[in-house]
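Lab meeting, item 3. Inverse folding demo.
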């Protein structure tokens, strides 16, 4: 696990999945970020492997700055997230 800062909000429940190419932000994190669905861009592509045995349809997508590291030594990357309309034990999954 890693505790990155996403769009100026420190998230403590983040899973890093180096076997995945998806970056997923779950719906519960949208409110924590102070964002609404108006900030999202519509997409039309389902993804597999999050809910066993079935496809999940993301709501939309959004690109947000993600800061990794400490206050003295950090790096910020802009990450494209798919917004999933369900919650898990994590706020986000970084692939």
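The presenter then showed the designed sequence:
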């Amino acid at each position: 696990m890693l505790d990155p800062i996403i769009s100026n909000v420190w998230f403590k429940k983040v899973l890093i999945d180096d076997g995945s190419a998806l970056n997923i932000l779950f719906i519960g994190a949208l409110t924590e970020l102070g964002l609404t669905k108006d900030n999202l861009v519509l997409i039309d592509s389902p993804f597999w492997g999050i809910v066993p045995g079935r496809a999940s349809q993301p709501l939309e997508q959004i690109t947000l700055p993600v800061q990794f590291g400490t206050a003295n030594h950090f790096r910020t990357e802009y990450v494209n997230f798919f917004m999933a309309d369900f919650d898990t034990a994590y706020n986000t999954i970084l692939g």
